[in-house]
Structure formats: structure tokens, C-alpha cells
Amino acid sequence: MTTTLTGYSSLIQALATTILVFLTAYYVRQARKSAYELEQSGKARYMPIITMRVDVGEAKNGIDVYLGNIGTGLAQNINVYAPFDRVPQTVERISPEEENVLVSFENIGMAELFEVPEEGRLLRVEYRDLFGRTIISEGTLGAKKQIDGIPDEERLTITNWHVHLKTDAPLDANKLST
What we know:
Layout: H1 2-44, E1 50-56, E2 62-69, E3 75-81, E4 89-94, E5 101-106, H2 110-113, E6 122-128, E7 134-145, E8 151-165
Antiparallel strand pairs: 1-2, 2-5, 3-4, 3-6, 6-7, 7-8
């Protein structure tokens, strides 16, 4: 009988050790997820957010884009992409609360712009934050309509504006290695 109890004792000890290993692994994984979320929260506090305002250029054969940073972090390595223009305009950096940084695109005729379907009139700004993340601000170029429905070239607007982080594959805190 003593040998039977000794055998069960070893089995119970092995089972308890196995459970302890799994619980420890679970808590390590939870701690990593918490650390990741804390890191992302800290980075979000210093995220630049680039806004865009557009106007018809003085010569009426281009578009002037005015950039501003309403975020709390520095935006750097800024590339502005406009419809019909393969080469982006660049700006080195925009500090928080800085406004009216002018980027001009010539040779974008208003008539040609509005012949393109709405999804093809995307104005896109890609930039990096202090942590090296790529952030994208984008919106669709449009025009306020006059009463008769004809686009008013003097009232160029941006619609469907949004900001997001560029990621090739979204990071999933649940799949962090242990």
C-alpha cells in the first residue's frame, strides 16, 4: 500500500508541476501583452497627425496643398502624393501645431481632375513619427457644387479624410512569442 501511495504521490507532483508550468507560461504571455499595449499607448501620445487643406493654385493650373500638424509629435520625411503626379512633393518635417506648410502641384488641371472617378482623386500624405512608424493621412479631392451642380473651381475641398498607421501585417498582441 505504501508503494501505491508513493506512486500516486509522484504522479500528483508531476501533474502539479505541469499545471504550474502552463500557468507560468500563461502569465508570462499576459505580461508581454500588457507591456506591448503600454508601449503602444506611450507611442500614441507622441503621434503626429497631418491635416490637409487645398486650394486652386494662383495660376489656376495646379493645386496648392496646405499641411498642418495637429498631433503632439514631430512628423518627418513627409511625402505628398496627388492625382496625376507620379513624383511626390517632399517636406523634411512639420512640428506640432505648425500650420500652412505649402506644397504645390502644377499641371493638375481642374477639368481633368474632375473627369476622374472619385476614388482616383486621392490626396495622400505619408510620413514618419519619432519611432519610425509610417503614418498616412489621406482624403479625396472634391469641389463644392454650385446651385446648378457645376463644380466651382475656386472651392476645392477634401472629403473622406482619415489617418491610419501603415502596416504590412497588423501586429497582433495575442501572437507575440513567449
